[in-house]
Amino acid sequence: MLKKLSYLLFLFVFTSLVLAACSNDETSSDSSSDSDSKDSDEVVTITTARILDDGTVFKDGENVHDNVVTRWAEEELGIKFVTEWTQPNDEQFNTQLRLMMSSREKLPDVFLVSNNNIKADLLQSGQVMTIDEAIEEHATPRLKELFERFPEAFYPSTRDGDRYGIPRYSGGNGSDTLLWIRQDWLDKFDLEAPKTIEELEQVMDVFVNEDPNDSGRNDTMGITLAAGDNGFRGGNIADASWVFGAYGDYVPGAWSQGEDGSLVYGSIQPSVKDGLAKIRDWYEKGYLATDFAILSAGDAQESFISGRSGIMAAPPWAHGYPIGEIEQVIPDAVVKPFAHVVGPDGQAGRRGEGLIVGSFLFNSEFEHMDKFFEYWDAIIGYTLGESEYFEYGLFEGYDYVLQDGEPVYNIDEFEEITGEKHVDPGRYFLPTNIPTIPYEMYSLLEEFHDTGRDPVNGYEAGLAGRQPDYIEAAAIVNKQNDIRIVQEFTGPPTDTMISRSEHLERLEDELFADIILGNKPLEAFDDFVEEWKKAGGDQITEEVNEWYDSVRN
């Protein structure tokens, strides 16, 4: 009996030990599973869609789904980006978005929208989320400061007092224009760069009548202007907004603040009549192409590139194309950037670039705004030179290489050292480029130009390595930021715009051309203003200001 009890006790203890061991194994297994689950939870998947154009070049073995940026985001931030679809341009991207919206197909978690019509429809659809609460809870202090600095950047994505989109900022003044003038022509006739409208006319007169290209023919013009794309309402190559800006605070096509703070349409303001009178005078004197009123910017620029014109307004980035093309036609040509001239009262003005190139919208079911802001702050930090991730540049072997412990940014040196092509990894990021901050880039370029200081990080090195004429032009533009005249209506077309804008714009274009060409007297401008108002302009003005009041309050 005792033996039997001993055996049963042994069996009980042994069984208990086995069960305990099994339990420990299971617990260990469960703990491991929980740990794996936790690790898995730390990587958040964010779906997106984007434009993927020919300018985005991947290294061998990389693509939009797997590249140095997607790997960085997953490893450093715990974000796995999944690009659900791409399109090669804005038009096709917008078409796919509209199809998804109309069919109520689930939208990507985050995507960039530039078209204000589609943006407005998305805001109304209920398929995208408001972001005020997310900004308050998750945006970093430097992001909040940036948002507060440019509140109008939210206007295109504001509805009923709620904000829906995070701004993708532009350069602020990146496409603002200045004057590009043939310096070799100025030198040939011992002329100084013009600073006033009157001095500019003296230069143009010489360029037209003194055979600056030594052709022996009367084949040159004073200045290249283009009005064939959108009249005088937009564009930057061969822009004429600065002529109107020399006479007042308004430019054609832009809704700007009037004296009472409400928005008024630039094309009907009295100062625009003075600008038309000046361009008409230039046309009569032969300073302009006879067909400038129907020339697109692309066609008009040929007069400058071919050496038939001595002056053209264009942004700093035009130094390479189209302005740089002149070297292939006239190797000895010297073109330099100059500030816009002032009018008879010492005033200058130019059309200003908008603050944003689009807004990031978010699927109404998106749950990870905290991770988006973490990502956005990380790359904004790079632009500000405050990055904790990118010490020398973005990624070694892509936009820089280390040699003897020092970063090399020069593209030729980079390719010689690595034996590989230099690529721009900034194009891989979610906004399709490194984010810009209004006025920051040209402010840095102005500083490099004026002080000659060395860059201190990869972002600055990329700017400081640009062509000298570009840097000088950027500095000039930045110094004239106070003359910017911006489009302050950034909402979708109003109801009356949709039905009447085509007629009103045609009325405007025909009248402006007829005045300049001498087909109608200057006084016809006053009749146009009255007709514009009666034909829907007054109603549009009321609707524009209803929108303006709604987004500011």
TrEMBL record:
Residues 1-20 form the signal peptide. This is ABC transporter substrate-binding protein. Gene3D superfamilies: Periplasmic binding protein-like II. Keywords: Signal. PROSITE patterns: PROKAR_LIPOPROTEIN. It comes from the Bacteria. It comes from Alkalihalobacillus alcalophilus ATCC 27647 = CGMCC 1.3604.
